[in-house]
Amino acid sequence: MSAARRVGWAAALAGAAALGYLAVQALTTTGSQGAAPSTRLRDAQHWADHSQTVQPAGAIAATDHTPQAAIASAAAYLRLLDSASETPATISELRELTATGFSGQALEAESQSATIARRIAQSGTSFARGWRLGYRLDSYDPASARVSVWSMGTVQSRLEVLAPDFSTTLCTLRWDGQRWRVVAARVTQGPTPPLDGSDPVAVRRFVRAASAFQSFPDAP
Predict the structure, then answer these.
(1) How far apart are CA 15 and CA 216, in angstroms?
(2) Would you say 207 and 196 are in contact if contact means Cβ atoms under 8 Å apart?
(3) Residue 172 phi, psi dihedral angles, 5° rounding
(4) Which backbone phi and psi does 183 adopt, to 5 degrees?
(5) CA 19/CA 125 separation, integer angstroms
(6) d(Cα 80, Cα 93) in Å, to the nearest integer?
(7) Which residue stretches of the chain have pLDDT < 70?
(8) Which of 59, 55, 165, 169 is CA-nearest to residue 106?
(9) Dist CA 43 CA 95 (whole Å)
(10) Edge-to-edge strands of the sheet including 214-215?
(11) What is the SS3 assignment for 95?
């Protein structure tokens, strides 16, 4: 495999979480939002401190007008991208979870993920999987929410071997009067644990960043 193609595969197969990274990074970054004002961050912390722990994706209805439902909706959106499936059920669910202006990009991301998954499967014995490790409620009010989801993915196949890759997807959601819908998503790398403890500064930096996320009940 050429160096250029290897870089392409690495970008495609890393991130949120394994198969969705390239599609999300390429198609949704333009729709991302800027940093929330400090007052909204304080409001989000208030909700995080006084709310129940979020349940596994699907356990809370997106139609609930609560911070937990916004978090669950963001997690469900990433789960669908990770599934790399183009079945009618998946497409229908993805449309339900995304706003009208964002659905086309999300569906294109799903299509690219499915294409990558098929290529890996056709190469023979392979393993490609992602896990949502934790979440952080960055801002919340009754009309909108910003949820960061920390993920890890890895790929092992004849075509590509990708070491565990960590990324964070910031999902912006809006309440449309009936349910929470994702209107934008942005992927960034990390936080990534150091390979060893030889750099105490790197260890402390990772600990601070990772500790900002609350664990999903079904995280590994």
Answers:
(1) 18
(2) no
(3) -100, 130
(4) -115, -15
(5) 17
(6) 8
(7) 1-63, 218-220
(8) 169
(9) 29
(10) 180-189, 161-175, 144-156, 127-141, 214-215
(11) helix
Whole-number Å distance between alpha carbons of 186 and 32? 6
Domain architecture of the chain: domains with CATH: 3-215 (3.10.450)
pLDDT of the residue at 49: 41
Distance from C-alpha of 127 to C-alpha of 73, rounded to nearest angstrom = 26
Q: Which residues contact 146 (CB under 8 A, 6 or more apart)?
A: 33, 36, 44, 137, 138, 139, 140, 170, 171, 172, 173
**Residue of 30, 217, 199, 65 whose CA lies nearest to 132:** 217
Instruction: Mark 40-51 as b/e (b = at least 16 C-beta within 10 Å).
Output: bbebbeebbeee
Helix/strand number for the chain, H first, E second:
7, 5
**How confident is the model at residue 88, as a pLDDT?**
86
pTM: 0.73
Rg (CA), the chain: 17
